Amino acid sequence: MSKKRIGILTGGGDCPGLNPAIRGVVLHAAAHGAECLGLRGGWKGMIEADASPLKAEAVEEIILKGGTILGTSRTNPYKKENGPAQVMASFKKLKLDALVAMGGEDTLGVACKLFDDFKAPVVGVPKTMDNDLSATEYTFGFDTAVSVAVDAAERLRDTGLSHSRVMVLEVMGRHAGWVALFTGIAASADYVCLPEREVDVKDMAQKLKAAYARKGTALVVASEAIKLPGAHSHHKEIDDFGHEILKERGVAERISEVIHKETGFETRSAVIGHIQRGGSPTLFDRILGTRVGVAASELALSGQFGYMVALRSDRIVPVSLKEATAELKTVPLEWLDLLDTLTAGMAGETNRHVKSAKAGV
Ligand code: F6P
User: Fold this and answer.
1) Which residue has the higher pLDDT, 211 or 234?
2) What is the pLDDT, as a whole number, of residue 233?
3) What is the pLDDT of residue 358?
4) Which is the CATH superfamily of the domain at 143-277?
């Protein structure tokens, strides 16, 4: 009898943890007498049947490597002529019994649609540094990205203190503020701007003045997609999945200007951008990547398709791709309240946002 064969692809933005996850699938498959093929460049690889064998010896040492050895793209087969049909033809051509698709809402959205439309034998692995998939408690990539951002914030604090400046750090996160939230809390920022709510400029200025009076510096962490009052909408370039391509990361500079105008303090800003997406995965991301990879191979080999493996209460469990891609996980009110309590406490104020936040729950 021929060996079972699993295809693996990585789609969307890369992040640390993908290689540990690929390794998890390949080693589990090898331990169960199955073999793996790596698709090149996400769904593009399935459209073009561009694949090569992935043997255990090739993945043995990749647990410490950032990025993805398979390459990635933001290709959406549903936006290409005959794309879905070509993907389904590649299952046959490459003799795949199953496909493990690793990605965020977009890549998994395609997997979900292929399962619905053609009963494609797909299993999803959640990946995103944004941590914005609602069906899983954490996604790999997030822990590493935040660790990089915290390091950057601490470096900014040193130079801010030396020059008596207010420093603003811009982090990624597209539609969700998780990276900014965790960076802000872990780096003890004096103000954190999140896409989940419009920046309250007066409140921010007040907090920064109080911080500056105490320390002679202040630190702001801002998510790339925040809303600033009075900001104009500009021409937007859109990707295959309908998302704005955020090429000009410039929110930090705009906030710096606002802060200078409101407080008179000298300000400087920094954008760490894609630096957050590179580098060796942290311990957490290596372990989570490995666990979800192994679990995905288990589902694939036992013929359980249409699921994504998710982290829930420290267990890896299957959830349907439909549920997994139904809605994005944005920062909820209880986290906003916690953040406001910390920043209010540092500024010597009471948390005036608590009431409205609680009332909205
Ligand atoms: O979704 C992950 C992410 O890193 C977002 O935080 C960011 O906005 C986007 O990808 C950047 O995409 P690209 O690598 O295509 O510039």
Assistant:
1) 211
2) 55
3) 47
4) Phosphofructokinase domain (3.40.50.460)
User: Does the C-beta of 246 come closer than 6 Å to ligand 1?
Assistant: yes
CATH number, span 5-140+281-324: 3.40.50.450
Specify whether the CB–CB gap between 271 and 180 falls below 8 A.
no
Strand partners, 8: 38, 100
Catalytic residue set: 130
What is the rounded average pLDDT of the residues 186-195? 98
Tokens of 117: 């439309």
Residues 6+ away with beta carbon under 8 Å from 67: 14, 16, 18, 19, 278
Instruction: Tell me if 145 CB under 6 Å of ligand 1.
Output: no
* Ligand 1 closest atom vs CA 173: 6
* Burial of 137 from C-beta contacts in 10 A (0-12 / 13-18 / 19+): middle
Question: Taking 70 as the threshold, does the pLDDT of residue 247 lie above it?
Answer: no
From residue 344, give the alpha-carbon distance in Å to each of 157, 161, 166, 328: 19, 21, 18, 28
11, 75 in Cβ contact below 8 A?
yes
Q: How many whole angstroms from 279 Cα to the centroid of ligand 1?
A: 16
